[in-house]
Amino acid sequence: MESLQAQLQELAPVFTAVGANILWALLALVVTWIAAKLVSRAVARLSERGIDETLVPVLETLAVWATYVVGGLVVLDIFGANTTSLVALLGATGLAIGLALKDTLQSIAAGFVLLGLRPFRVGETIQFGSTIGTVRKIGLFTTEMDTPDGLRISAPNDKVWGETLTNFSRNPKRRIEIVASIAYRDDIETGMRVLRQLVAEEPRILADPEPAYAVRELADSAVNLHLRAWVKTEEYWDVYWALMKQLKPALEAEGLSIPFPQRELHVVGGDGVKIAPKTAPKAAPK
């Protein structure tokens, strides 16, 4: 018993030191957690000070992880770990992980390229490949978007950067193109007058650039008239749908018709080749 008591007395300072280190480490972890929360909130408020919303999520992620790394190094230092050797070990481990996670690192690199070049920002509508949507967040690994049918998608940054990007929101003006088909027997100038009247009655169409009118094509069954007009980007679809709705009744009001496709048939029979009589395009029933 005396020997056991003597050993416990010798180990008492060790237990005290270890216990103190554990308490300091727990305190350091709590402080790190609180600091990470405060840093996250502070960075999130940068958008209120004029910082681009595109950069805020990435800056927030980097700041939080940097806080955790510093806190972890403090905890290791409390227990007397050789942080210099640890940093070298982490570097070697990071290299191995980097080789194993090559695709993930490509997404991170593409994320920084997207943030640097800014081909799009949060709130803009873009298309890459067959994917189209409104950008909601650009992270270190993925870009989050809302599709026109209300779905939330998350695309790897390297896939976004690796495709040809179309930004539908960046320019303030966008061109509308309307094709009106009339029959060959109809008067072209009357059709042009209908298109000009539609433009005159639509106040959202811009005067500069000036609207353009042309005969686009002499098609198989119709003469295609072409209208090009410019509108504000945010009003594009509203104006386009309004013009398309008004086009058919406006043509009919001037006695113009939208013809059905026609075909000329060559019938081969016992008496040779018979050519069916060619008829003019039939007008759509009213």
From TrEMBL:
Give every Mechanosensitive ion channel MscS C-terminal domain span: 176-258
Q: Where is the Mechanosensitive ion channel transmembrane helices 2/3 domain?
A: 67-102
Location of this chain's protein in the cell: Cell inner membrane; Cell membrane
Q: Name one GO molecular function term.
A: mechanosensitive monoatomic ion channel activity
Sorted alphabetically, which Pfam families does this protein's record hold? MS_channel_1st (PF21088), MS_channel_1st_1 (PF05552), MS_channel_2nd (PF00924), MS_channel_3rd (PF21082)
Annotated membrane topology = Multi-pass membrane protein
- In this chain the Mechanosensitive ion channel MscS domain maps to 103-170
Q: Which UniProt keywords apply?
A: Cell inner membrane, Cell membrane, Ion channel, Ion transport, Membrane, Transmembrane, Transmembrane helix, Transport
Look up the record and report any one GO term of the cellular component aspect: plasma membrane
For this protein, the parts annotated as crossing the membrane are: 12-35, 55-76, 82-101
Q: What does this protein do?
A: Mechanosensitive channel that participates in the regulation of osmotic pressure changes within the cell, opening in response to stretch forces in the membrane lipid bilayer, without the need for other proteins. Contributes to normal resistance to hypoosmotic shock. Forms an ion channel of 1.0 nanosiemens conductance with a slight preference for anions.
Subunit: Homoheptamer.
Q: Which family does it belong to?
A: Belongs to the MscS (TC 1.A.23) family.
Under which name does UniProt file this protein?
A: Small-conductance mechanosensitive channel
Q: Which organism is it from?
A: Microbulbifer agarilyticus
